[in-house]
Amino acid sequence: MEKLVHLLWRSENHNEDAHRAHLTGELADRLLASGAGIQRLDILSGDTSESMPTPSILLGRGNELASVVTTWVNTIDDRAPIVAALTSVVGTTGHLDQYLVTESVPQMREGRDWADGEATPGMTHFSWFPKPDHLSDDDFFHGWQQVHTPKTPELHPLRVEYVRDSVARVLTAGSPPIRALVAERFPTIEDYLDPKRFYGSDEALGESVTDLPLYADFESLNSRPLFQTIILS
After folding, report:
1. What is the number of structural domains in the chain?
2. Residues 59-86: pLDDT tens digits?
């Protein structure tokens, strides 16, 4: 099975509520019936303005991102209907970036008490960034996965899920050469917005800042809060 992550960007006339309703309704039905062989479907939507008009962590192109649609398919050979369906959503003024990724889940909540199609509790912090040019692949993955990742439970002690995707291929022409996509879920919006609850300690935050050059350049970091809906698990 192969995992495809799609970044959907805001169009000029973007409407958050209408976008989310369309993604989790008509668009989800179209994707599942597309013949692309979707085995799992997960949607992260950026309709956060009402609940958090001034997000505490909005970096880079975060305010331009409309949503993230993740599909697991039997083969990327059959991905054309997915691209067609998602391109119809962003229209002529937005655009779509599609990435083939390898998924790693360093932290996953045990059990689940909500059904497919229901909003996932809490808030997901979604981040993406390229590999700095001055780092080799070995150095990049070592810094990100072996140095940074083991320290994140101390950095975010209230986090309940951590999904780390490494980009294997950029599948849409002209898309940025992103190498890392990360989804971290917190149980409540308050846990996300309150820095004292979001971060474990000043020491852990300081160490994270120190380690950052081992895998990313600060000016190339992108992030924003998103709401998750698991359509098909």
Report:
1. 1
2. 999 999 999 999 999 999 999 999 999 9
